[in-house]
Specification:
The chain has helices at about 15-25, 60-75, 85-95, 95-100, 110-115, 120-130, 175-185, 240-255, 285-295, 295-305, 325-335, 360-370, 370-375, 380-385; strands at about 5-10, 30-35, 50-55, 80, 135-140, 155, 170, 190-195, 200-210, 215-225, 235-240, 260-270, 275-280, 320-325, 350-355. The protein is of the alpha/beta class and about 375 residues long. It has 3 domains: about 5-105, Rossmann fold (3-Layer(aba) Sandwich); about 135-195, 2-Layer Sandwich (Dna Ligase, domain 1), CATH 3.30.1490.20; about 200-355, D-amino Acid Aminotransferase, Chain A, domain 1, CATH 3.30.470.20. The protein has a 7-stranded mixed sheet with strand order 13-12-9-10-11-14-15, with helices on both faces. The longest helix has 14 residues, at about 60-75. It is globular and about 65 Å long. It starts with 6 loop residues before the first strand and ends with a helix.
Length: about 375
């Protein structure tokens, strides 16, 4: 470690994963400059922010954002810059050569990240290389798509989205064409996939070095989600699962991955086999759980960026639980009325929370205030519901 305090620019302060990055690096004494397109963002309320910045929207004003970012890194020396949302990450990676004159950008190439983010490309790659995934149909013509041979239920899924955005479930043939056209209107030429019953949903977080060698792997089970039919996890637990770990490592290695990623699987109770759902090519929403369990991905990524490599970190505590209470787990509870008629562990204490923290309490207020931009800012609503 250098004698000077590490200085990092962290973008996309609205999101839980960004707050996890800020807290992890802030506790190590790093000088953190944290930004978002609005002041009402949870991570901007953290005590670990040394400076807070508001910048033009990467979504609606990409050129202005890039101009701002270039001025910022020319004026202020940063060891690395860390975007956590796809739009911001892709803009930076498109212009990587220019930014890397002044700082480090420790992520995979723009082309690879764009491919992986496209679920059609990813499913074709997985099928071609023998990785387990749901039976998938690729829509080329919405009107004349032959759906007579489909086995219901099926899932209509956007080629590019995150969480549950744009997903539609179809239980019978009579509803298929109308639902497909509705999804197609907002997400052109979606995928059709067999519905995989939830026999267990898992995420595998990983860090790969510049030679595409794994340096850290963390497995967790998603215990609750919102929406309850499938979406971001609101409660999860650290676990060991060598089968899933090996599949995820093999898949990312075959992609020649660099940096962080999270591979999501769902275990099919019909045959007991895991099926690939997606790859998140950046920090993921439940990052706080990995850090609490002993795998400090933000710090490991920083060390890799600075030193060219990092010592492997394979060990972590199992049985650690972390929840996203506000508003994720509360919405899960309210939307799942069965919980009102049976004993539940909803009110059982967990080891930690994505946002609520006694040592850093203000981001909880920031999360509530972050709802304000959704009232007046169409751009923020668009980013949230993409």
């Amino acid at each position: 470690m250098s004698q000077t305090t590490p200085k990092i620019l962290i973008l996309d302060a609205m999101w839980n994963k960004t707050l996890a990055v800020v807290r992890a690096l802030g506790k190590r004494g790093f000088h953190l400059v944290v930004g978002e397109k609005t002041r009402f963002a949870a991570a901007l309320f953290s005590r670990y922010c040394n400076r807070r910045v508001v910048y033009p929207s990467p979504l609606s004003s990409p050129d202005k954002f890039l101009d701002w970012l270039l001025r910022e890194i020319k004026t202020n020396h940063y060891d690395i810059i860390l975007p956590t949302e796809l739009e911001t990450q892709q803009l930076i990676l498109k212009n990587r050569k220019e930014f890397e004159k002044y700082t480090r950008v420790p992520f995979a190439d723009y082309g690879l990240i764009s491919h992986v983010q496209n679920k059609a490309w990813l499913m074709k790659f997985a099928e071609a290389n023998g990785y387990p995934c749901p039976r998938t149909y690729f829509v080329k013509d919405v009107i004349f798509f032959n759906y007579d041979s489909l086995e219901y239920p099926v899932v209509i899924k956007p080629r590019e989205s995150s969480g549950s955005r744009g997903l539609a479930y179809v239980d019978r043939p009579s509803d298929f064409l109308k639902t497909l056209q509705t999804v197609h209107k907002n997400y052109p030429f979606p995928l059709i996939q067999e519905y995989i019953p939830n026999g267990g949903a898992y995420g595998i977080g990983a860090l790969f070095n510049y030679n595409s060698e794994p340096r850290a792997v963390f497995v967790y089970k998603r215990l609750r989600e919102y929406p309850v039919t499938g979406g971001p996890s609101t409660l999860r637990e650290s676990v060991k699962n060598d089968e899933l770990k090996d599949i995820a490592i093999g898949l990312l290695r075959s992609l020649k991955w660099v940096g962080v990623a999270m591979v999501e699987f769902r275990v099919d109770p019909r045959d007991g086999k895991p099926k690939l759902m997606e790859i998140n090519p950046r920090f993921w929403g439940s990052l706080q759980l990995a850090i609490m369990s002993g795998v400090d991905f933000p710090y490991l990524l920083y060390r890799m960026a600075m030193d060219g490599d990092v010592e492997p970190a394979w060990d972590y505590r199992v049985g650690v639980r972390c929840r996203w209470l506000i508003p994720g787990d509360l919405l899960h509870f309210l939307s799942n009325l069965k919980r009102l008629r049976k004993t539940t562990d909803f009110f059982t204490m967990t080891n930690g929370d994505d946002i609520i923290s006694a040592s850093d309490p203000m981001p909880a207020i920031g999360r509530v205030l972050s709802l304000l931009p959704l009232i007046y800012d169409k751009d923020m609503r668009k980013m949230l519901f993409r």
